[in-house]
Amino acid sequence: MAPAARNPLIVALDVPELAEARAWARRLAGEVGLFKVGLELFTAAGPEAVRAVAADGNADVFLDLKLLDIPATVERASRAARRSGARLLTVHGSGGKAMLEAAVQGAGDDLRVLVVTRLTSLPAAESEIAETARLAREAGCGGVVCSGLEARTARAAVGPERLVVCPGVRPAGADHGDQLRVATPEAALRDGADYLVVGRPVLGAADPIAAARAIARAGVKS
How many CA within 13 A on the CB side of residue 213? Predict the structure, then answer.
């Protein structure tokens, strides 16, 4: 479970232009634990997105690229991600143990590799999440990404030292959008999540600062 001192909120900057991402980073500076740079923004702006968001938002960056390729390619991509200054990087668990180990090798000591167990837009079995989480631990990865519904299962499999990061988090009563497996912030943190990845419930809120603070406070209550 996340310590009280840690802001558990990762705001997903899933926007098409770097200028928009930088504006959000400046607006939310001091309100989040990390900012997420995902495929859309990274494809548009490349590693500069990581550096700019980190500087403008005064926070570390979670680089959510979900790498999946042969081990040698993933190792080189992981090394490049480390040079960008990102602190967390996602790879797909379906790539197998050799690929995960290669990602860890490329990441070095400054970048934590997180293994995506199953996209939250798809159904999943608890056994599948547990198996992928155990594989992540055996490969030396820094943690896993899973739905808050499986946070307890993932935490049991990876142990207390690795991170459990949960996307698909929605405040009670919020629209689920394209997410199938969702959990509230309080439930995910209670069940073992360290960080919650939230995009639309913050960026689309009438008061994004208040929305971010409400989710961050869930970490204190859990």
Answer: 6
Q: What is the pTM of this model?
A: 0.92
> pLDDT tens across 9-49, in order?
999 999 999 999 999 999 999 999 999 999 999 999 999 99
- For tokens 């608890």, the residue is 126
As given in the structure block, the two tokens for residue 201 are 């419930």
Alpha carbon of residue 58 to chain centroid:
17
Residue showing tokens 């999540």: 193
Structural domain contains residue 61: yes
Domain with residue 123: its CATH number is 3.20.20.70
Q: Which listed residue (36, 66, 97, 221) is catalytic? A: 66
Domain containing 152 equals 9-221
Tell me, yes or no, if 66 is annotated catalytic.
yes
d(CA 69, CA 165): 22
